[in-house]
Amino acid sequence: MQKNLTNLILAGALAGVIGGGAVLAGQEVYQNYQVTHSPVRAKSDKTVALSSKDTETTAYNKAANAVVSVVNFKKSGSSYTESSEGSGFAYRKAEGSAFIVTNNHVIDGADKIQVITNSNKTVTAELVGKDSLTDLAVLKIQDSAVSATASFGDSDQISVGQRVLAIGSPLGSQYASSVTEGIISATKRLVQSDDDDSSQSYAGSTVIQTDAAINPGNSGGPLINLAGQVIGINSMKLSTSSNGTAVEGIGFAIPSDQVVDIVNKLVKDGKVTRPAIGIQMINLSQVPVDEQKETLKIPTSVGGGVVLYKVNDGSPAQKAGLKKYDVIVGIDGKDVTNQADLREELYKHKVGDKITLTYYRGTAKKTVTVKLNQTLKS
């Protein structure tokens, strides 16, 4: 039985790295300049109550002028060749600049970046910073190039079934400012897939699932509620399942509260430094019940958690005494049912902070204090 569990965990291990994983090595950091303006609110604006006057049209009109196309150019000899296009939107004006958020995979590897505004102006953009783990990047252009900025809503306040709009440039700038409508299919979905072709890494990302049409080129554009607030950034969709079955209406957006936190860090420091505990893990729900009993030996009453597949040598987790096959069920008094729960709470902390983990080792329930170190940068 233990061999079967080991094979199962190996299949999902790389998608469950928190700290020190080779999949995150060698990522580039951009720090082109320093800015001093005040950040976007640490917690995005609360989602406003909707009224009968809030329609798809009014929502679109509130955000559309902030939406842009983002063009990635590669240098070829003495000239530049367009490599790809995506979307983005201006979220702030300060100190003569307009700041634009987009996906990291939209601008990854670019030798030059251009932005095409809603009024069809084409301007060269500077890269403020990028974060491959969350697939976010911040650009800046001259503030006079855009006429409006979009406001963030609170993604913690969204609900399944709520109507949303996706705005962007599907298939490129010739279809700029296209809008599609759908609903929120899930407020928090843990996605574990890597797209090697576009250098995206979504391993362990917690995202909003929507059935609003998201096509190539929509990446980086806003997902808005009917109040016209940005509650997510459109990032990817599933077109086929793992067994090759065609899939429709499954798209994903990065939650706005996560976006606000990351863009503030990118504007301030040009990079994101994350705390780490140095483990590889898999959701307890992925382990068959008989192996939970025979290999993990945890009580049958434990309904959720994450199983440690590996504890990295010299890591905070190892120093705290955590071991392979321990099952983490809580962090700082909050329940952990899966990787998304653990990551969400962990990344609220800073390097050097101490966290309290609750876990099972066999039938024994234990708590331990872990001091976070710095091993993840992107």
TrEMBL record:
Gene3D superfamilies linked: 2.30.42.10, Trypsin-like serine proteases (2.40.10.10)
Domain PDZ: 286-363
Any single Pfam family the record assigns to this protein: Trypsin_2
The protein's name in its UniProt record: Trypsin-like serine protease
Keyword match Transmembrane: no
Keyword match Hydrolase: yes
InterPro entries: Chloro_Bact_Ser_Proteases (IPR051201), PDZ (IPR001478), PDZ_sf (IPR036034), Peptidase_S1_PA (IPR009003), Peptidase_S1_PA_chymotrypsin (IPR043504), Peptidase_S1C (IPR001940)
Family the entry assigns: Belongs to the peptidase S1C family.
Record keywords, A-Z: Hydrolase, Protease, Serine protease
UniProt record, GO biological process: proteolysis
GO molecular function: serine-type endopeptidase activity
Domain of life: Bacteria
